[in-house]
Amino acid sequence: xxxxxxxxxxxxxxxxxxxxxxxxxxxxxxxxxxxxxxxxxxxxxxxxxxxxxxxxxxxxxxxxxxxxxxxxxxxxxxxxxxxxxxxxxxxxxxxxxxxxxxxxxxxxxxxxxxxxxxxxxxxxxxxxxxxxxxxxxxxxxxxxxxxxxxxxxxxxxxxxxxxxxxxxxxxxxxxxxxxxxxxxxxxxxxxxxxxxxxxxxxxxxxxxxxxxxxxxxxxxxxxxxxxxxxxxxxxxxxxxxxxxxxxxxxxxxxxxxxxxxxxxxxxxxxxxxxxxxxxxxxxxxxxxxxxxxxxxxxxxxxxxxxxxxxxxxxxxxxxxxxxxxxxxxxxxxxxxxxxxxxxxxxxxxxxxxxxxxxxxxxxxxxxxxxxxxxxxxxxxxxxxxxxxxxxxxxxxxxxxxxxxxxxxxxxxxxxxxxxxxxxxxxxxxxxxxxxxxx
Length: 438
Hints:
Blueprint: H1 2-19, H2 23-33, H3 38-59, H4 61-69, H5 91-96, E1 111-116, E2 124-129, H6 130-144, E3 155-159, H7 171-180, E4 182-186, H8 192-205, E5 209-213, H9 214-226, E6 235-239, H10 245-255, E7 258-259, E8 262-265, E9 270-274, E10 280-282, E11 286-290, E12 297-303, E13 314-323, E14 335-340, E15 346-348, E16 354-356, H11 360-365, E17 369-378, E18 381-388, H12 394-409, E19 414-419, E20 434-436
Parallel strand pairs: 3-4, 3-5, 5-6, 6-7, 17-20, 18-19
Antiparallel strand pairs: 1-2, 8-9, 9-10, 10-14, 11-12, 12-13, 13-14, 15-16, 17-18
Helix pairs in contact: 1-7, 2-6, 3-4, 8-9, 9-10
């Protein structure tokens, strides 16, 4: 494909030079590992892990203290099993040790400020090494290739890009979207009018792939089927929420294409893409273990490329069933047979407005809020539970929250905000942040 070659040989080197990234190098490396032997992958990860541990001990105050406490100083003989001896890193620990988790050695480490709401609804701000960012994109490109995606194929992205009216993409994002031919659209308000416009855009632009929140794609598919519109894509790639089987079958029928799930968490540097046999192939860019050897159980992730703010044995908040099996597809990365803990949610209102859950983390991550939970009580009412921090300004931030919510669900929906000193997990152990009680 000509566009793919132009991207690889011209635009990627140019972007890497201007943006201090390493996308081309990362892409070349991950493609080498796509069908590499399992022992080769393990050796690579162990080499990277030992290097990261030494860097963390020598340059990161938090880990220098921690490694001394647990008497971890011999990194040359460190094994995967030894990871269990390192206490897990939680969001609370990160917030309490934000400065001490930053590397003192910043020369030649290019990074950006990042944040995530996460599936628990707990906003987290952190520093992301641009090497880690580059490898995440490279792993996505490789994983999307499982259904014949080529870099430069036109892709419509249903996410949270237009949550705020004044939200504008940076120059770098604008350039990337142009080069990669990504078309990002709001995936939270999926009313019939919105779906009509999206469908028209897909047909006019000859979109080849659909990538985004599975619940958003589901609502778009329902609109297309209801109106008997014929659309054929090359592939659908749901993300953020793992699609139940009936969603995937439905997408395949409506869009007449292949469907595979994509999983990622930028704070953990983890990406996992599903192959044709239903297994999630974990990228070599991180090491994933089950906490307490409970399988399936909560996962602890180590990003092998984030040197500016290393996260070692980081509790992402999701649950996986990990496996040492070899996949029939011939790819030998370590596997997740199932990814649990993320829920599909859709709220429908009496006025025809429909919203989905994941994108609302973008609204709350930039507020002075520790946790939140959005609960739909009826077709005409919502309860928003909020745990704030000491910097929260009720006069300013409450107004912004209400304005954004009303813009997406309508002025006539009753929105009640309840401030809670400590927002507890649900009885089932989950920290669900988007709940419908219709």
